[in-house]
Amino acid sequence: MMGTNASAVDSKLDHCNVTNAVTYNVLSGIVAAQFALGLPLNLSVLYIFIFSFKFWKNKSVFLFNIVVADFLLVACLPAKAYSYQLGQRRSPNTWMCKAMLFMLFLNRGASIAFLVTLSLDRYFNVVHLGRRNFVKVLKKSPEISGVIWLLLLPLTIPTMLKTFECCNSHGRDVETIYHDVTDTFREVVFFSQILIPFIILLYCTVRTVHRLKKKSVGEKAKLRRAMCVVMSVAVIFSVCFLPCAIARAVLLVMRLRGWQEAEDVVVQVYDALMVLSFTDCLLDPLVYCFCHSGFKDAYLDTFCPAFLHKRLRKAETTTTTTTTTSAGRSLSLPMIEKLQV
């Protein structure tokens, strides 16, 4: 009887051993490549923001916080790649598992919070031009950035509250009220921090595009840059965050219904999409370039080879000049001043 009960309990626990070693070997290689690309990229971006761009003078405090969040993510990638290489979905060390999930939740929450704030700022600048933009005041304040990080802690700490298999026992563990509330809260945080911001971003993007169509030709150049910011953030969400949220929902349905074979497949898909979500640390620098042309210039001046830099400058000069013909002669008209953060 005791053996039967132990087997029943054991069957409900997910020990995180992978069902397909080849899949996770491939994922391990992808994560290692993300780390190899992300570490020098984010270190160089961090260097530019601090020493060349001087973010505190260029009103780019929120952009700097996104860099910090990305750097936290990059720091977690070697441990994730190592676990996958061992044929495990997470570290066998309980505290390492909890610390990894804590860092991933914190990074994701911070990235989403600061990216959404930037998109809202662009939205108010375009759609509600002339009205008081409270977001612009908030995003220039280091104190507000600190408050955002502190507010993220209550949403992240539940990952550290108890021992759980695979850093998630929802539908697996022998449920008690405490376990159920903790796991449910963690799932609510996971989905809400992706789906709610995505709805906000979708609204901002649609309204910004609609506003752009109503503007005259002279104003479109400035608004197009604002639209690029909003759309680039929406693309990052669509590629990096939304797919893993959908896969997570499917995984929970499979788990709660007890469809073990289907779950074994969905788990692999979910982990693969989670690995895809780590790509945001490589895509975020595009947002920095769209948000502030000064960042792009500082980065090129510091790291771009001289001969390539000259070519890029020449190409940029060509593309930012509009030639019109009036009364039989050509006039060179510079584009409208770029929208800055």
The domain count comes to 1
Sketch the topology as an H/E string, one letter per element. HHHHHHHHHHHHEE
CATH topology group: Rhopdopsin 7-helix transmembrane proteins
In the sheet with the most strands, the strands line up as 1-2
Family: Belongs to the G-protein coupled receptor 1 family.
Main location: membrane
Domain G-protein coupled receptors family 1 profile: 41-288
InterPro entries: GPCR_Rhodpsn (IPR000276), GPCR_Rhodpsn_7TM (IPR017452), HCARs (IPR051893)
What does this structure look like?
By secondary structure, this protein is mainly alpha-helical. The protein has a single domain, classed as Rhodopsin 7-helix transmembrane proteins (Rhopdopsin 7-helix transmembrane proteins, Up-down Bundle). Helices cover about 75% and strands about 5% of the residues. It contains 12 helices and 2 strands, in the order H-H-H-H-H-H-H-H-H-H-H-H-E-E. It has helices at about 1-10, 20-50, 60-85, 95-125, 135-140, 140-155, 175-215, 215-255, 260-275, 280-290, 295-305, 305-320, and strands at about 320-325, 330-335. Strands 1-2 form a two-stranded antiparallel ribbon. Helix 2 packs antiparallel against helix 3 (about 60-85). The longest helix has about 40 residues, at about 215-255. The protein is globular. The model is unreliable at about 1-15 and about 320-340 (pLDDT under 50).
Quick overview of this protein structure:
This protein is 75% helix and 4% strand. The chain is mainly α.
